[in-house]
Structure formats: structure tokens, C-alpha cells
Amino acid sequence: MSKKLTKFQIILDRGALLYLPGQVLSGRVLLETQADTAVLGLHFHVLGECTVHVPKGRRDKSYDKENYIDFRMKLLDDFDNKPILLSPGIHCFPFKLGLPVSLPSTFLGRHGWVQYYCKTSLQETSGITHKNQQVFIVLNPIDLNLEVPIMSSPLEANVEHRVGVGYIGGTVRCNVGLDKRAYVPGESILLTGEVHNRTNVTVKLLKYALIETVKYFVHGKLVHQERRELDAVVRDKIKSGGRDVMQNGHLTVPPLPPTNLLGCHLIKVQYSVCLLCQSSIC
């Protein structure tokens, strides 16, 4: 920043920097100069984009990007191609923009992100260009009251899995039930489960887990995915011929960042309840 320009910042009217799709983004660019300053223009840019960057090796990488907002305007322009003289003091340049009604939520992942910025640049006649930016957050909440009725109905899954080969092993039969199909952070997932060990070995690990899966896509192809365990319920071992019955088990949905990425084609976030069943011969 030059000695003439002592302050150059973007101030949004919402101090929390949090916006919903369709709301108005407004604020001002604030300049403070100590002396007469000749400038060529003040440019303002609102950008919303998703970037995926997955390294494959030292030189090879997968990269893709898509935009949701790309709005540009001049807050100060030299209409007659002559420099504009800013007198000493404080100068405010307001801006106002209606955000699109369909925007994916802000998201920060290890290999990709959805982010929104206000950017501004001021060019002096001396050739010096000052730049600044302000990040803002978009939250696109999901209203479960507006979702299809099936989301509030119970869910049940049954599976039978073969363990071992030949006379060593057998089958493990699993039944898992959820009280509904959609949850919000802070809620408890009510679980029921029954696992019947029909093998001739012991099931040494039985775990119900809430899993978050983040998938990254580049040019329409899945290039990477991450999985992390958010909560888990571990049960006792099941001997050969025995079974484990769980009633009123609970998995808690932890506080999570916005994950409604509707309209984003490069990052997908999914949540699932998984049953891990490991025998002594695995």
C-alpha cells in the first residue's frame, strides 16, 4: 500500500458475513488517502466458484473448476479517459447485488472447496495497483419439512455375507433399522440391529458407524474420495452360532459445516450408517 493510500478495504453490511441464496449482498469499498491521489479506476468483482485439485504425483495433478457467480462492475471509472483525482480524506463506494437463488453452500475440503469472494482493485496513474478481497459465506439449508414424506419413514436393510472358504467359515446375517432417513446436526439416529453368526468362527469386531464420504470429480470422473467416521457404537464379540440384538442404539450427528452442495458438479458429500463385521479369520 502506498504512502498516499492508508486504508483500502471491503465492508459488508452483514457483520456475520453469512448469506442465504437469493439475499442481497451489499456494502461499500472504503478508501482513505493522505494526499491527492490520481487513479484510473476502481474495479469490483463478486466471484463464487468450486475448485478441485487432487495431486497424483510430483508433477501430475487433476484439476477442475466451475463458477456460480462472476459479476464485475466499475465503482469508479475514467469515462473521458482522464485520471480521477481523489482528494485527501475518506471515500466510500457502495455496491449492491442480488445473489442467485440456487447456490451451493460454502464448503472446505482437503482436495476441493466452494468459496465466495468480493474482490476489488484500485489502479493509480503511477502504475501501482492495490488489491483486496473479502470472503463471505453462503449457507443453503435443507428444510426437512419440505422434503418428500419418505424421508421421515423408517428404513430397514438386510444382508447375508459369506465368510471364509469351504468348511472354514459360513454366513453372517445382518439386519439394521433406522427410525427415519434424514437428520440434522445434533440429532440422534435411533438404531436397531440384529447380527446372527452362522459361521464356525467368532465375530471379533461388530461396529455400527456414521460415515461421511466426500467425493471429488474432475471432468466428470471420480478422482478421489475421503471417508471419516463421525460416531460409532461397538458391540461385543459373537461366538459361533450366537447372535447380537441391539435395541435403541444411538449414533449422534455432530455439528457439521453446510453440506448442501446442490448445483455443484465437482464435489459430492454423502452420509451413511455402516455395519462393520469382522471375523477371526479375516
Structure, described:
It is a single chain. With 282 residues, the protein is an all-beta fold. It has two domains: 5-138, Immunoglobulin-like, CATH 2.60.40.640; 144-279, Sandwich (Immunoglobulin-like). The protein has no helices and 17 strands. It has strands spanning 5-12, 18-19, 24-33, 37-55, 61-77, 84-86, 89-98, 107-108, 112-124, 129-138, 155-165, 168-178, 188-197, 203-218, 221-235, 243-252, 267-279. The strands form four sheets. Strands 2, 4, 5, 6, 8, 9 and 10 form a seven-stranded mixed beta sheet that branches. A four-stranded antiparallel beta sheet has the order 11-12-13-16, with no helix packed on it. The protein has a three-stranded antiparallel beta sheet with strand order 1-3-7, with no helix packed on it. The mean pLDDT is 90.
Order of helices and strands: EEEEEEEEEEEEEEEEE
Mean pLDDT over the residues: 90
Major pleated sheet: 7 strands, mixed
Secondary structural class:
mainly beta
User: CATH top level of the largest domain?
Assistant: Mainly Beta
Number of E-state strands = 17
**What is the tally of helical segments?**
0
Overall geometry = elongated
Radius of gyration: 28 Å
Helix content: under 10%
- The N- to C-terminal Cα distance equals 63 Å
- CATH topology tier name of the largest domain: Immunoglobulin-like
CATH architecture of the largest domain: Sandwich
Strand content: over 45%
The domain tally reads 2
Which parts are unreliable, with pLDDT below 50 for 5 consecutive residues or more?
Answer: none
Protein name: Arrestin_C domain-containing protein
Keywords: Sensory transduction
Domain Arrestin C-terminal-like: 168-282
Organism: Anopheles maculatus
